[in-house]
Amino acid sequence: MAFLFRPYPTISYRVPGTKKNILATDITRRFSVANFIRNAKVTFDEYTVQEGERPDMIAHGYYDDSTLDWLVLLTNEIQDPYYEWPLSYEQLQTMVLQKYRGRGTNGSDTATLSYVYQTVHHYEWIVQKASVISDYGNRRILNEKTLTVDYTTYLTLTDTDRRSVSIFQYEQNLNEQRRHIYLLDLHYTQLIKEQHPYVFEEGVYVR
Question: What percent of the chain has a predicted confidence (pLDDT) above 90?
Answer without folding.
Answer: 43
